[in-house]
Amino acid sequence: MVTLQKPALRHEAPFLQAVRRSRTLHRGFASPPASSDAYRQYLKSLRRENRLGFLVTLEDAGELVGVVNVNEIVRGVFQSAYLGYYAFVPHAGQGLMRQGLRRVIGRCFRDEKLHRLEANIQPENERSLALVAALGFAKEGYSPRYLKIGGKWRDHERWAIRSEQWR
What we know:
By secondary structure, the protein is α+β, with helices and mostly antiparallel strands. Helices cover 29% and strands 35% of the residues. Strands 1-2-3-4-5-7-6 form a 7-stranded mixed β-sheet, sandwiched between helices.
């Protein structure tokens, strides 16, 4: 079982250790904050109204499983946001991020009153594609050279879910 926590300064050391352990897993797919300065900038970015961040942790041990970010929240007639997420070694591939994402998505639709969430995923990231499909997201399109990750412009598939589709 997992819980969600808001990232805080007290998480800096375990977060950075988890990032170091997970470099191979993240290579080419994610660029998490990897230094104290970068982590503090990340915390600062979460103070903006259009961002939410969550640490997914093991309920009993408090170990970091991964991160889920809700970015570029647009209110008004759009009520939409982008999801970004990544797991940490040794917890990747165990279904724990599915639990964490399920909780974040529920919160976005229930508490934040969002209508739509979008996840942009590289076609080679089979685990991530399987994860969003299992959560009920639908593929909406393909965007060549969509996001710059690890210094390279990378193609992405666009997957989304609307509040009325959420189970």
